[in-house]
Sequence to fold (220 residues):
Amino acid sequence: GTAESFKGKKVVITSGPTHEPIDPVRFIGNHSTGKMGTAIALELASRGAQVQLVSGPTLTYPKHRNIQVTRVTSAQEMYEAAKSYFVSSDIAIFTAAVADYRPGEVADSKIKKTEQNLQITLVPNPDIAKELGAIKDKQFTVGFALETDNEETNALGKLKRKNLDMIVLNSLNHDGAGFAHDTNKVSIFDKHNNVHHFELKTKTEVAKDLVDLLQQALNE
Ligand code: C5P
Fold:
């Protein structure tokens, strides 16, 4: 892609896991590393976009003059931050592995161990992609899907439900693809029923493919 093809475009990207607090020292989380979000942020930044990366807790964060990182912890915080940038964005890309539930109550002090079972009631988190999809006007929105069965049907269902323009389906039926790996095998669907299938590639190369399609779509 050309160096300035996204010049003047504002992009918000959600990335990484969320941590949902149980008490002051414990949380519910997942194994997302934020690699896919980081790769997309760097690819767009290198093509001149202004990127707001809203990231849950990860080990590293990208450094680029066109990327501003907002660090968040919980899904609720990620939603608030993403929403604040979304309103003035041209493009939103939802790569984060957002926890679907959080503890309904966060204990003020460390929960003590006893001999009894411990129950924690979980309440649903906001679906960031869905909530923002419902209020979008000009924004071009992209989501991700990780499916084990009925991959295509489920991905297309998500595309519709979350009012997305494009969805990236991660194939889990492949070694080296998905969570915490450096490679991904994806198919990309858009709302006009176009589909592109890609080979197993590094996340950097997947980001290039996605941004190429994004560039095409925005030029149409
Ligand atoms: O419904 P599911 O979690 O499979 O959808 C995945 C897509 O929705 C991803 O793009 C993910 O970032 C986004 N998502 C979100 N907020 C949630 C759950 C998922 O933005 N609470």
